[in-house]
What does this fold into?
Amino acid sequence: MELFKNTKIDFLGKQKIFIGASLVLTAVGLVSWIGKGGLKYGIDFTGGSNLTVKFSTAPPVDKIRTLVSAKIGGEISVQEIPGQNSVIIGTPMKDELQLTAERKTLSDILEGNFGDKSGKLDFNNASADTLADKLREPLQQASVGMNEQQLRDMAKAMLSFKNTPPRSGIVTSFDQLNGVAGVTPQVIGVMKQQCTLSSFSVIGAEVVGPKIGAELRSKAVLATLYSLAGMLAYLWFRFEFIYGLAAVIAVFHDVIITLGLFSLFGKEISLNVVAALLTLVGYSMNDTIVVFDRIRETLKLSRRELNAQIVNDSVNQTLSRTIMVSGLTFVSAVSLLIFGGPVLNGFAFALVAGIIVGTYSSIFVASPILVFWHNFNQRRKKTPAAAGK
Amino acid sequence: MQNLKWKAVLIVATILICVYGMIGIPKSMDEVVTNWNNNIRLGLDLKGGSLLVLQVQVQDAFKAEAITVIARLKEEMAKQAIPFAAMDNTEPKTLAEAEKIEISIKGVPLDKTSAFRTLINETLGSWVLTPVNSTDYRLTMKPTEAMTLKKDVVSRSMTTIESRINGLGLAESSVQARGGADSDSEILVSLPGLDDPARVKSILQTAAMLELYEVKDGPFARMEDALGKNGGVLPLNTKLLKSVRAAASEQNEGWYLVARTPVITGRDLRDSKPAQDEFGKWETSFILSQDAKGRFGKFTEANVGQRLAIVLDNQVKSAPTIQSRIEDSGRITGAGTNQEASDLALVLRAGSLPAGIVYLQEQTVGPSLGADSIHQGLIAGLVGLVVVIVIMLVYYAMSGVNATIALLLNAIILIGVLAYLKAVLTLPGIAGIILLIGMAVDSNVLIFERIREELRAGKATMAAIDTGFAKAFLTIIDTHVATVVSCAFLFMFGTPAVRGFAVTLVIGLVANVFTSVFVSRALFQFEMAGKGSNAKLSIGI
It folds into this structure.
């Protein structure tokens, strides 16, 4: 199959439209960015604490907010993860000691309001060791023959069953445990006496103190800038300085626009999103280098100066590849966005947005810069020569 | 032809070596799964577990050092009959102030100046004496000594934390210096598979400083009572310690006046384990070392009828009366559960921390969240991969098969190398893999488009393949090297997460040059082998 056979699209002729579009997109992003008072950072960068809690039914978001706000100062965010019966409870940045204390307070609040007060062990929030300790004697009394190793293995197996999707951390009835390795009806009977099932399970926690937050922020930015500088140096070495500069400007353009989109859609920038931004930097750079390589090759063959025609031809010649590759990677990214779940969501969003912008920038940002620079140089060379006559 | 055979051998050997790295030589289906789980190490974010960054409060150790120095100095000065009015140390509150700790000595008479100076020079090698005025002095720590002390405190804390974690039996856990600027007092603890972060955090944070003191007086209900009985000041060589009330019924709650120096400290322990008393209540028993045995025996013999304070982390746990000579064992009562008693035994065995610790960061991923991420990531990855393969097959016909083989081989090599390197696969690592699939597809597409161009230009099939590969090769090298260069910087300056991304990507890039340039070309050669050099190639045109 061939879709882009001998295309002759005058990309550079339309560059004004596209550069205009780029500027508008950047401006929209920046306005939202500034209008909202900066980007929305995840707690890995701002510092603070997050607790991810899964409930057996739809989580009572407002109740949680009221309960937490009563005990912990500052702005409390309770964010529901759609379709997962889960919420992320966020508390703002404080100093390290306070954050650690608040982490405990949060657990206590959940325990006190959604837990069972009978004093039995909560199976949905138990660890394997505690569970084994709790069951050891009652099982003996119920004359279930089991040695220590078997007991520990069984406790592990039950918890691992609880943690596997579709349960994903919550068991609603002990009878569900039927069929887990080592579990007999007698064991379930003992479990029913000794344990309880609360309607929630803490499935994740993150506490980032101000020191680490500031450090992660500066490290992420530094790493990105250094790696861009590295690419610029390499392209300078392999091509010319202006090629490197053009590629880096194009990549910068992509990152700014993607961040703008994050701001527009109110999405959080976390460490994982930074990884996604680095990925899109890679993609965009890749795209740009392919076009540049073609330009260099055409220049060698034609023994002519760089001009709009050559750039246009090169873009057209590589167009089939560009569309194919972008299309294919776009498909994987969209699949990640749809099926990847909440943890990967921000990440996939950055990729989807980045691939579109990155492809676009190779053609409409990086290439015109080359032509512009060349024409500018030509004029500069000609002017003093003309004056000399 | 000979050449082709060798290529085939090389490719098959690569596949076998990588597959071996992933699953070894399994004898059953179960073993495939177990070996895979052993060889492919998942990061905390996928497997579940906790990552903790702790900061050692080095200033605590500096304070302790200053207090020891003061005690020693007072003793020496008394010996040499050098009087002084006051001696005190500053209290550094933060890490940065730790090294600036000072001891001030006031009111040393003028005629004793030279004797005092000689004493300091002889006894305190690691401190510098600066006169404030004719009778007052200031002692500061030599910078090199301060550095040594700091390093020593951090490394002792690390050892202690490590042995506590080992005591918990957590596999694959690691304790390491966090490294980086400004963070020489920070320790990174990673605990994969941990399901009880709250318990471990408290175990790590417990100072676990066990001391046994001779009780001089008490208990007093309030601190003021103790002072009041002694005319408002503490008697010489004593200090006040508060007791904790283990149960509401406990009677000896309050303050104890104890000897200033302990009879026995945590270092004198040989072993410690949980036990149950005659009523089935949990407690922690300990056994003293050979060296401490004699000392303790003598002390208890001389103090029968007196009370002994068992002090943990500066809190009196209990103050039983000494009934008879005790040689080598004791117990700490008041544990609520078996787990509490064994946790205390564990920290006592592992030794005390030389300074307090503060948690700078905690990242806990519950096992269910990790399992969900893997599950969803897997579905997303597979759907993406299948769609990509279908499109390539439709667009490039039979040549799409080559691309698919190259792509799958790339994945096999990447996972195999990760297994051999014992590298950990994390979420950002998966990001690297996605970029990689993109670049692998890219390399193949680049080559195929080139071959198509050459074919359109009327070249013979074999020549078109050769030129296509040759021309695309330069571009592939450029894109790959540029990415490797940027990965090198990411690795040098990035956070651990970003590093995982960089490592995965670099391995994959190298694999990709091999699969797309070498393997894919060999596949074309296999296809064309035995046919005429202008046989029709199925590449979608």
